[in-house]
Amino acid sequence: MYPLKLIPAVKDYIWGGTKLKTDFGIKSDLEKVAEAWTLSCHKDGANIIANGSDKGKTLAAWLEEKGFEVLGSKGKNLDSFPVLIKLIDAKDNLSVQVHPYDEYAQRVEHEQGKTEAWYVIDCEEGAELIYGFKKEISSQEFEERIMNNTLLDVVNSVPVKKGDLFFIESGTLHAIGKGILLAEVQQNSNSTYRVYDYGRVGADGKPRELHIKKAVDVTSCTPPTHPYGAKPVTEKGDGYEVTELVNCDIFKSYSVKIDSEYSDKAGEESFVSLLSLDGDFTFSCGETELSLNKGESIFIPANMGEYTVKGKGEILKVTL
Ligand code: ZN
Fold first, then answer.
1. Residue pLDDT, tens place only, 162-185
2. How far does residue 174's CA lie from ligand 1's centre (Å)?
3. pLDDT band at 207, cuts 50/70/90?
4. Spatial distance between the Cα atoms of 139 and 242, rounded to a whole number of angstroms
5. In this structure, what are the phi and psi dihedrals at residue 303, rounded to the nearest 5 degrees?
6. What pLDDT is attached to residue 118?
7. Cα(256) to centroid of ligand 1, in Å?
8. Are 110 and 205 in contact, with CB atoms under 8 Å apart?
9. Taking Cα atoms as reference points, which of 303, 299, 320 lies closest to residue 268?
10. CA dihedral sign, ordered 35, 40, 44, 49
11. What's the gap in Å between 271 CA and the centre of ligand 1?
12. Which residues are known catalytic residues?
């Protein structure tokens, strides 16, 4: 057992840009890269192991071989891998959408629901996103406004800045706006119900499908209650600074800003995922030494003990 360096899966959705290739070192022959899935066991976008004796295997196949014990005590009894981590480059607006909660997703889509959290890495001046409704409306009004194209009149548009955190509980209407580059930590699910797509057409020249009935089923029509924006620093150490971004039932995530060096451990409770958001680092843990350059990610199995990251920049750390 050793820490795994992962090759991401990439997606060229119509709204994507090229910054993940030019600024984050994501390798792809695709013209644009909308998303890089940097920690994924999902069937729609598998990670491949890049180092050591398991090189070339998918993370999902490796996990099946090793068993869920490697996820730690919080993950060993789960039915499926709990999280999916992505870098998202929205050159254009994403569709206005909603994701189902667990019970609905399990019944209808045969996978987990999708609560997600966005950490804004960079954005253009004036960038905005949609976070729920401005005020409470009825499900009937929601459906009518989808049908008569007036949904944007009642959504909550929020200006964003670098470092903001948004917690998007399943059932919350949302859309990432153009000019935003963010890291998303979400449940391991790909169930999306689209309700408004700015009149765009897909690669085949036809409007992309809307999923109105399912969206009305799962959408919470009251304004969201989770606070959003910048989070306070939670730990200052010698040569690093940690900010807790999310601490929910499903996962914990942290921004770790490193000046010189940061050490922590992968204990018995959980695996640790590290993703470089900015800067090139050297990672070491036991016998293993790896580069962790901007846009790259490392998965450390539970119980691997202490690890050290040296360099200057920012890392997204995720655990259960
Ligand atoms: Zn979403």
1. 999 999 999 999 999 999 999 999
2. 7
3. confident
4. 41
5. 70, 15
6. 98
7. 24
8. no
9. 303
10. positive
11. 24
12. 194
What pLDDT does 209 receive? 87
pLDDT at residue 199 greater than cutoff 90: no
Q: Binning pLDDT at 50, 70 and 90, where does residue 208 land?
A: confident
Terminal-to-terminal C-alpha distance of the chain: 19
Sheet of strand 272-278: strand arrangement: 48-49, 4-7, 297-300, 272-278, 313-319, 252-258, 240-247, 235-237
Percentages (nearest 5) of helix, strand, coil residues in the chain? 15, 40, 45
Length of the chain measured in residues? 320
Which amino acid appears at position 60 of this protein? A
d(CA 137, CA 36): 35
**Segment 263-296, tens digit of pLDDT:** 999 999 999 999 999 999 999 999 999 999 999 9
Cross-strand bridge partners of residue 35: 11, 88
In angstroms, the CA 1 to CA 62 distance is 11
CA of 95 to the centre of ligand 1 (A): 9
* Cα gap 114→307, rounded to integer Å: 30
DSSP state for residue 201 in the 8-state scheme: B
Measured in angstroms, how far is the CA atom of residue 104 from the centroid of ligand 1?
Answer: 16
pLDDT at 272: 98
CB neighbours of residue 227 within 10 Å: 9
Say how many Å lie between the CA of residue 185 and the centre of ligand 1: 10
